[in-house]
Amino acid sequence: MRTMTKGQRYTLDRIDDGFYVFLYYENEQKELVIPVTELSAELTEGDVVELFIEDAHYKVRILQEETKDLQKKVENLLEKLKNKK
Prior knowledge:
Elements lengths: L7 E9 L2 E6 L6 E5 L12 E7 L2 E6 L1 H21 L1
Antiparallel strand pairs: 1-2, 1-4, 2-3, 4-5
């Protein structure tokens, strides 16, 4: 029997000492820390992902559109900050 949890969205905040540190997407108050060895995907800081558990193992799906949107949002904020000076 296969078991799978409903996926949750997270943003990869950083990779710290062999651990992925995720922040809950759009409510960055919750943090999830997973050893890099637990996930088979190559992730980059800033990736928006959907994480779920299948048969007692973490699975990840990179959400390309959400990642691009977040990158544009960050770039726009940085540009606004530069223009204030």
